[in-house]
Amino acid sequence: MMKRDTQADGLTPVVRTTLTADICRKMVSQLIRGTWAEGARIPAERELCQKLGVGRASLREALKALEIMGMIETRLGDGTYVCKRSDFFSRPLLWAIASSSEADARELIEARMLIEVELAGLAAEHATADQLVELAGLLDQMEKTKKNPEKFVQADVNFHLAIGRAASNSILMNALHLVRNLLQQWILGAAVVKGVPEKACAQHKRVLTAIKNQNAMAARKEMRKHLQDMAAFAPTLQKSADE
Q1: φ and ψ of 83, to 5 deg
Q2: For the segment 18-73, what is each residue's pLDDT rounded down to a tens digit?
Q3: Can you tell me the distance from the alpha carbon of 222 to that of 137, in angstroms, rounded to the nearest whole number?
Q4: Residue 9 φ/ψ, nearest 5 degrees
Q5: DSSP the chain
Q6: What b/e readout covers 209-234, taking b as 16+ CB neighbours within 10 angstroms?
Q7: Which residues, 6 or more positions from 234, have their beta carbon under 8 angstroms from its beta carbon?
Q8: 79-82 vs 72-75, strand pairing mode
């Protein structure tokens, strides 16, 4: 048996016969432990091969599997980087939703409503002056990009995430990241419908006004109304998954 490497990064030679699977398990373990931070570049193939004691072909197969899982991404000519945890932790759930019913999509939206309504109320209680400025800037971006669905959706997502940060609750914030990632396609589907961007901007403005006024009850009420109206586009998620 090969002598185990005790290097600080925890990578040791693979000694079992199913090389690709073993490499995946070892790499997944390191990624979850945070050996390489989000957005960090992982070691080059040659270095990984040396540390793991495997050939380049087996390593590349494992890396491809990790990329499909959403844990890493390869940038041509630049290297391989660690994806955000919210991305790769949500990927298995996205696969499950892609093959499930419209009712399941609606259940996911109900979960989002529970999370975001409460976050809006907490943001009204905890938002700082700088966070209010950030929210106003994101609302302005939404107004300016109403005719560009992709940019509009990004501003919309960032607005909701900014509310989550302003709420000062890390657990709910992590839940928000998960739900928002799973609903990206649904949000984009709603944004291309005539009149929806304008309506969404008006509703976001009312949410922001309530947060500025430190009115938690009003913030929850306005966020609930916004999400209920947008829920009409929930079938878009299932339609996109089936195509």
Answers
A1: -75, 165
A2: 788 888 888 988 887 888 888 899 999 999 999 999 999 999 988 988 887 778 88
A3: 19
A4: -80, -5
A5: -PPPP--TT------SS-HHHHHHHHHHHHHHHTSS-TTPBPPPHHHHHHHHT--HHHHHHHHHHHHHTTSEEEETTTEEEEPPHHHHHHHHHHHHHHTS-HHHHHHHHHHHHHHHHHHHHHHHHH--HHHHHHHHHHHHHHHHTTT-HHHHHHHHHHHHHHHHHHTT-HHHHHHHHHHHHHTHHHHHHHHTSTTHHHHHHHHHHHHHHHHHTT-HHHHHHHHHHHHHHHGGGTHHHHHHHH-
A6: ebbeeebbebbbbbbbebbeebbebb
A7: 102, 105, 106, 109, 186
A8: antiparallel
CB atoms near residue 18 (< 10 Å): 11
Residue given tokens 């072909």 in the structure block:
57
Query: Region 114-124: what's the mean pLDDT?
Result: 95
Burial tier of 4 (Cβ tally within 10 Å: 0-12, 13-18, 19+): exposed
Nearest in space to 192 (alpha carbons), one of 238, 152, 157: 152
- Is the model's pTM score more than 0.90? no
CB 163 within 8 A of CB 198: no
Whether 69 contacts 47, CB under 8 Å:
no
